UniProtKB/TrEMBL annotation:
Fe cation 1 binds at residues 103, 135, 138, 233. Pathway: Cofactor biosynthesis; ubiquinone biosynthesis. Keywords: Iron, Membrane, Metal-binding, Mitochondrion, Mitochondrion inner membrane, Monooxygenase, Oxidoreductase, Ubiquinone, Ubiquinone biosynthesis. Catalyzes the hydroxylation of 2-polyprenyl-3-methyl-6-methoxy-1,4-benzoquinol (DMQH2) during ubiquinone biosynthesis. Has also a structural role in the COQ enzyme complex, stabilizing other COQ polypeptides. This is 5-demethoxyubiquinone hydroxylase, mitochondrial. It comes from Sporothrix eucalyptigena. It is found in: Mitochondrion inner membrane. Belongs to the COQ7 family. PANTHER family: 5-DEMETHOXYUBIQUINONE HYDROXYLASE, MITOCHONDRIAL (PTHR11237:SF4), COENZYME Q10 BIOSYNTHESIS PROTEIN 7 (PTHR11237). Its cofactor is Fe cation. Its EC number is 1.14.99.60. GO terms for molecular function: monooxygenase activity.
């Protein structure tokens, strides 16, 4: 059953795709949550999450100048941008679509888990709120991006909404450890997923810079945004493990099923 809060989240996400949005803030996240004071610095970054770091290329908007043509007229002074290929446009659309879907699912999972978990373990209220608030922030970010770039949201919004709420409620019903194991599994897959996108974008922009093109602020900001959100997802993963996710029974089965479900949902949402 979907709670009124969950329905409101879905409605907000839907509204975002039909309205023009204001530019997304791209500043890097504070290292301490301004609301609850919880540290946002990942203590550890577990799981098979591969680093997106490359050879230290700089992706700031202060890109190197384009190759000189020997002319000094005004048109040559403009930044030289390489148009996106259809394949690159499709990749970006698919990335924004699946990210928005994933963040909606994350907010619904936490919304469903929190009442049951907090009732049994009141000391977890600040942590659950902290993680939920960060997920709402991620969802708002992708709602704005998907509206700004006129990307079609996933057609399976209602299905993912029901499944995410069901996953959150059922794992919380199983107990705190299972709820945390759910977070561990989801964030492991999401962290890996974001890293894949970041690597792809870095390879793409690095290639442009090597060819003498300017990357431009939008893609640079998108990479920074993805890195910030990826770090916050991995912070959630650490919180889950610190709160006995590994003690869920049977941990291997629970996390295995949830991770498989996440990978399947990502695969479908990238396409549908
Ligand atoms: Fe998130
Ligand atoms: Fe998360």
């Amino acid at each position: 059953m979907i709670s009124p809060a969950s329905i409101k989240l879905v409605q907000t996400a839907r509204r975002a795709v039909v309205s023009r949005a204001s530019p997304v803030s791209t500043s890097l996240a504070s290292r301490c949550c301004p609301r609850c004071g919880l540290s946002t610095v990942p203590a550890r970054r577990r799981a098979a999450v591969v680093s997106d770091q490359t050879s230290g290329a700089n992706y700031s908007s202060a890109s190197p100048p384009p190759p000189s043509s020997g002319s000094s007229n005004a048109s040559d002074a403009k930044p030289k941008r390489k148009p996106l290929t259809q394949e690159q446009k499709d990749f970006l659309s698919s990335a924004l679509r699946v990210n928005q879907t994933g963040e909606l699912a994350a907010t619904l999972i936490y919304a469903a888990q929190t009442p049951l978990v907090v009732r049994q373990h009141p000391h977890l209220r600040p942590l659950m709120k902290h993680m939920y608030d960060q997920e709402v922030g991620h969802l708002n970010t992708f709602n704005k991006l998907i509206a700004k770039h006129r990307v079609r949201p996933t057609a399976l919004y209602p299905l993912w909404s029901v499944m995410a709420t069901g996953l959150g409620w059922s794992t919380a019903f199983m107990g705190r450890e299972a709820a945390m194991a759910c977070t561990e599994a989801v964030e492991t897959e999401i962290g890996t997923h974001y890293n894949g996108q970041i690597r792809e974008l870095i390879e793409m922009t690095q290639q442009w810079e090597e060819e003498g093109y300017e990357v431009g602020p939008e893609l640079s900001e998108l990479i920074q945004t993805l890195r910030r959100i990826r770090d916050e997802e991995l912070e959630h993963l650490d919180h889950a493990v610190d709160n006995d996710a590994k003690k869920a029974e049977p941990h291997w089965l629970l996390t295995g099923v949830i991770r498989l479900g996440c990978r399947s949902a990502i695969w479908v949402s990238e396409r549908v």
